[in-house]
Amino acid sequence: MYSAKDIKQLKYDIFESRQYDYSIRPSKNFSEPIEIYIKFCVLGINDIDEVNQRFVTSGKLDIEWKDDYLDWNITEYNNISSLSVQHYSVWRPDIALNNGHSSTGNLHLSEFDIIVFNTGLIKWTPYSIFETKCEINTMYFPFDKQFCEVEFVLWTASAIGSRFRKAEVEVSTLHVRGEWKFVNVDASIINNGSLHKTVFKFNLQRKPGKVILEFVLPAVIISLMDLMTFCIPCGSGEKISFTTTIFLALAVYSTVLTSMLPATSSNCILGIYLKAQMVIEACIAIVAALQVRLFHCKNKDKLPKWMLRFCQWSLNHKRKRKIHACDKRVSILSLSSLTVDAKGTCPDDSKLDSLIKMVKEMQQHCSCTGNCCGCHKKEPIAFYAALTKHTTITGSRTIVYDKIYTNLVQAYDSSNGKFRAPVNGLYYFACTQISASGKLHVILMKNNSKLGKGYSVERGETGSVIGTVQLEEGDVVTVHHNPYTGSQQLHGAEYSTFTGYLITQL
């Protein structure tokens, strides 16, 4: 077991007797550079400052190299295999932080000792907090990913005879603060001429939950509240103040977002969205102001020239379009522009009411297939037929009404007594019969299914079947004799009739 005396003797021999000079590169063969091994043990990611574009990490560096003048035989020094010396006692590679945020240069890690092994291996393990530059890309904020680098370089004269041989990184004890999630880190070495550099590249992803809940969601809700502007009556006095409040809220959110992001970063999609919403809100405020102005103007008031020109332009634009009178809704603002005269006088209430009434009548009675000049009414569907001769009926026989008074669209066939629905819709039917011999039973049928029954008790008595039926195109409606009542006689001479018509199309 060695003692302090052995350590003193060892230090004296390797530093004093050998006349060790820490200013000279410790290599016996100057034609070959000293190879340096570096390992970055990351203990924490302390901060990512988006505004100042600063990346702050803490950790230690395991730096190793070979010193040809600091080896000894352990048997001569009571098996001493390693020795701790102060940093200024031996030659050290001039390693500097290449992309420091506030300064670039030596790490200034003078308070940490160096371990010297009997084989000449030197191990230096300094600890520090590293503040480096990091270009923040916030285009997809808050769903962004950032790539930040920590670069170490061999500075000044050390680069002539030294180079990095191997670089590693350890993150087993890594702790990430704040709203960021660690993804991975890569280590790479660049030995190009006089440039010898080691780069540790960190891949980080933002946790968007807090930003979405506290910033994005309220901004979207405020944007959706724009639509409520058109639900506020003009006479309430709150229409303009509501739109102004929404605009100011969006402006505040835009200012807050700007303060969170660096001034030199690319355009943020969230920021573009807020600016676009502000433009939309400004347009809504202009429309609301026009609505309130038109609402409160009197019949003898004159509109400003710019408002008059806008109304005239709107009128001319509408005239050039093909308007379907039944499918288009005319707004109050458009109706007002139709009645503004050349002097800028506000619309008269009686004229406005009559114009609205006229448009509603057009919507109810006109069915258009082209422009308004090509309007035509839908062709109605109706028929009315009568029986001309006395008819004896037996079994389930179809009663054929042979004389036609009305038969629009030819839906009723007088040769077989069948009505065939030309379109889907709700129809009205009625059949009236007079018995010529006694009791008489008839049935109204739809596709051979019973719809209703009619009954006459004695000769000369009238019976009828009346009802509304929903039909699809191609359905058949007929009048049949009840097969269970035997042979019966139906009065002709146009006393027995069958009629029907389309109520509404479905």
Automatic annotation (TrEMBL):
It is found in: Membrane. One of its GO terms (cellular component) is membrane. It comes from the Eukaryota. Keywords: Membrane, Transmembrane, Transmembrane helix. It holds the Pfam family Neur_chan_memb. GO terms for molecular function: extracellular ligand-gated monoatomic ion channel activity; transmembrane signaling receptor activity. PROSITE patterns: C1Q. It is a multi-pass membrane protein. The chain crosses the membrane at residues 211-230, 242-261, 273-295. This is C1q domain-containing protein. SUPFAM superfamilies: Neurotransmitter-gated ion-channel transmembrane pore, Nicotinic receptor ligand binding domain-like, TNF-like. Residues 376-506 form the C1q domain.
